Amino acid sequence: MLLRPVRHTEEDAETIRKLAEAAFGTPHALEGEAPPQAARSREKILHIVRHDPAGSWLAEDETGQAIGAAQSHIREGTWGLALLVVLPGAQGKGVGRALLQRTLEYGRGCLRGIICCSRHPAAARVYRQAGFELHPTIRMRGIVDRAALGPVEGAAVEGGPRDRDLLDSVDRRLRGGAHGPDHEFLMRHNRLVVADDLAGSGYCYISEEGKVALLGATSRRLATRVLSAALLGVGEGAGVEVEDVTAEQQWAVDVGLRAGLELRAEGFVCFRGLRPPSPYIPSGAFL
Question: Which of 25-29, 151-155, 230-234 has the lowest mean pLDDT?
């Protein structure tokens, strides 16, 4: 097995995208039928490579075939694991551990670390052995019951680039470091809802597909406001999804229950050197 840095090329980005499809069981993986989100996935991979070239690695077998990949980033002293995937046929052979070790070496100077982990038992074991605390999560999904959720209490408006200082300030308070350039990517591909008044500040990104991409706030009341506004902003009858809701986010569970969403146990959010941020819902890639 050979480990090499990911190159900032469409070819490497597509290789990692296909590895992720295969590892996560996406239909038609490796058959050349790219999903509608393929271009966005490649853009996200290249975004991380551009800003953190030393944090992205590919694993290849003796024939040169890619069998695994990992991406990580550092934002103001907070390290995050954006992706760790291994082809099913190569799992259990130390590929994932080797890739994780390279990303951890990249973040060795960071005091704080965050990982969003699937339910895969091997992944949870490796992250715990690396010193991370595992916090079980809930996934909420369904069609919003608008009448039951009720009107938003307080002002919540469409956000944009002018809100960068607010976003960075909330990030630093919750996770010790701003997301910085990741907000530029998130704004391109998601709707941003912002609340800012004398009671505090909060924000929520939600995609066109109705998936909450990232949320942070200075209080549970502000978090409830921006999440409710984001869910109500989805088209009538469209499905929504909120992932990586930890036990610390009971305010989010309450919103989901009022909205009529289905709850189920999912994976873990893992922290090292950092208490679980709250109120906060991480992004799977940008954390």
Answer: 25-29
Q: Which CATH number is 139-264 given?
A: 3.40.630.90
Residues 6+ apart with CB under 8 A from 185: 43, 44, 47, 286
The pLDDT tens digits for 171-218 are 999 999 999 999 999 999 999 999 999 989 999 999 999 999 999 999
Q: Architecture of domain 2-110 in CATH? A: 3-Layer(aba) Sandwich (3.40)
HSE value, Cβ hemisphere, 13 Å, CA-based, for 81? 29
How many angstroms separate the CA atoms of 220 and 205, rounded? 17
Decide the pairing of beta strands 78-86 and 112-117.
Answer: parallel
pLDDT band at 34 (very low <50, low <70, confident <90, very high): low
Average pLDDT, the chain: 93
Cβ neighbours of residue 180 closer than 8 Å, sequence gap 6 or more = 75, 76, 168
Residue 35, both tokens: 């999903």
Tokens 């984001």 belong to residue: 230
Dist CA 192 CA 16 (whole Å)? 28
